[in-house]
Design brief:
The structure holds two protein chains of two kinds. By secondary structure, chain A is of the alpha/beta class. Helices cover 36% and strands 25% of the residues of chain A. Chain A starts with 6 loop residues before the first strand and ends in a 5-residue tail after the last helix. Chain B has eleven helices and two strands, in the order H-H-E-E-H-H-H-H-H-H-H-H-H.
């Protein structure tokens, strides 16, 4: 196990019933970097993200082999507390998923689950999270209106703020800009670059361009296989594998 | 055409009942207890009886029904057990109310020795409304986007937290509708109630007191030819009560939905 890695993935394979979604993934994620997992649809990227915080546990008939370590702790160890793991590794989904409650309650949802109910403490946490997600200025006057009334881009940043309120260590983002216009996309990307200072970020990008804009390192997924990974300038300019090159240059995908 | 005739039938019923009943409706009709078997006085004790019985029915029926729906939707996958439970509720929904009455009489009134009482009647009604509560609650839980649950889990929520903080609040309007239908059914029931809660006109003092509900009162007044005037008055009051319950409930639920979206 290499030192200094936040997440170490060893020979990790994942199966839905009998079909294999991930094939022997080996990968180290370093702390405070943006790693992007990119590739065509159905190449296992989402499964990859969800297996990192074990949201895959919700799927019946799923199984896996290999290991994933977070700071040296095997996350599939039976002793691992799922709720605790998921607070450390937060996830933002491809479509904005505000819960049908106020902006404030959305952000406070995680801390409240964690038995933080002191009002002033909550207020501080919510403000801090919204500021980190670069949303505070836009919503500070309507914290108590329903989150469903925000625009798509605001909703997605709200989802990021909701994760940040838990003070996680790792952020998983699954095509967070797929439903958004270019301006909202730009503001999310700026937010991500801000967040990199404090968090390890694993991003499934919207497209190759986004991956090359924000990533420190990148990995190309194809049919559940991690074809190659490396610093993003290398992956996007002179990839080692023919398949990566074909995809990056737009010959397929 | 169909919609129009539906409305026409409704208006016809309302007009008929209200035309005959409204003249009887004075304040003292609501606030006086029946005298002389209901020929004179008001219907106060039957209003109390109706409310108490309905409250008991909802108190037992709603949590049990919602709990069953949560179990079916959140804790089991389609399996033998869930199919048996669903088959059971479907059968229950098709049982005539007089059969429930008979069951309540044999089981609650006699076997459990509760006598003709609010409790016996309420428990019988609870069993009767169970299928409605279960199926409406199940439908509204089913309609909740799966992403809500996923979000809650991804934020470190346990299953129980997810159910109590996301699933049930989102399903509440649907659950409420089912409960409201059940309230309507409880208020309107007669046969099963006569068998389990009796038809006493005396003001109830405890859960073990027998009572007469407004519907039963109406039925007895008309059936035994005691007083058609009072019967129509009771009918009109019943309609107004149901209308009021529905309006208030609708208002509450709209406010709730508005607050969340």
């Amino acid at each position: 196990m290499s030192r200094g890695s936040k997440i170490v993935i060893n020979d990790f394979s994942f199966y839905y019933d009998s079909s294999q979604a991930l094939r022997k993934i080996n990968l180290d994620i370093r702390p405070k970097e943006i790693f992007t997992a990119f590739g065509p649809a159905r190449s296992g990227k989402t499964t990859f993200l969800k297996s990192l915080n074990r949201l895959t546990d919700l799927i019946s008939g799923a199984s896996h082999t290999g290991t994933i370590h977070l700071d040296g702790m095997n996350i599939y160890d039976p002793r691992v507390e799922l709720t605790h793991l998921r607070r450390r590794i937060g996830m933002v989904f491809d479509l904005p998923t505000p819960l049908p409650m106020s902006v404030f309650d959305n952000v406070a949802y995680g801390p409240k689950l964690n038995k933080i109910i002191h009002r002033r403490r909550l207020t501080e946490m919510v403000e801090k999270a919204l500021r980190s997600a670069v949303l505070w200025e836009e919503v500070k006057d309507r914290l108590f209106t329903s989150a469903l009334r925000l625009s798509g881009g605001q909703q997605q940043r709200l989802c990021i703020a909701r994760i940040l309120a838990l003070e996680p260590e790792v952020l998983l983002l699954d095509e967070p800009c797929s439903g958004l216009d270019p301006i909202s996309t730009a503001s999310i990307e700026e937010t991500l670059i801000q967040l990199k200072k404090d968090y390890t970020i694993i991003l499934v990008p919207h497209n190759v361009q986004q991956a090359s804009r924000v990533a420190d390192r990148a990995g190309f997924f194809l049919n559940g296989e991690l074809v190659e990974e490396g610093p993003s300038y290398q992956i996007f300019t002179k990839p080692g594998d023919k398949r990566t090159e074909d995809y990056v240059t737009g010959r397929f995908g | 055409m169909g919609a129009l005739s539906t409305i026409a039938v409704m208006i016809l019923i309302l007009l008929q009942i209200l035309r005959e009943g409204l003249p009887v409706l004075h304040l003292h009709f609501f606030l006086d207890s029946p005298k002389n078997m209901g020929r004179e006085g008001g219907i106060f004790s039957t209003i109390i009886g109706t409310m108490a019985l309905t409250a008991v029915a909802i108190f037992f029926g709603a949590p049990l029904g919602v709990g069953t729906a949560v179990f079916l939707r959140e804790y089991t996958r389609e399996s033998k057990i869930s199919r048996i439970i669903r088959f059971g509720t479907d059968c229950l929904a098709g049982v005539p109310s007089i059969i429930f009455g008979l069951f309540g009489f044999v089981f609650f009134v006699i076997r459990l020795n509760m006598g003709w009482s609010i409790l016996s009647g309420g428990l019988t009604l609870a069993a009767m409304i169970l299928p409605t509560v279960i199926s409406t609650a199940e439908e509204s839980i089913k309609a909740i986007p799966p992403s809500y649950r996923e979000v809650s889990f991804s934020l470190g929520g346990t299953k129980w937290q997810t159910i109590t903080r996301v699933v049930l609040p989102s399903a509440l309007p649907g659950i409420f509708t089912g409960v409201l239908l059940s309230v309507g059914r409880s208020i309107g029931e007669t046969a099963a109630i006569i068998l389990t809660a009796g038809s006493s006109l005396v003001m109830p003092t405890s859960l073990f007191s027998p009572i007469r509900t407004m519907s039963v009162h109406f039925y007895i007044l008309a059936r035994e030819g005691i007083s058609m005037k009072m019967a129509y008055g009771t009918g009109a009051a019943l309609i107004l009560l149901v209308l009021m319950v529905n309006i208030i409930a609708q208002w509450l639920i709209n406010r709730y939905i508005q607050h969340r979206t």
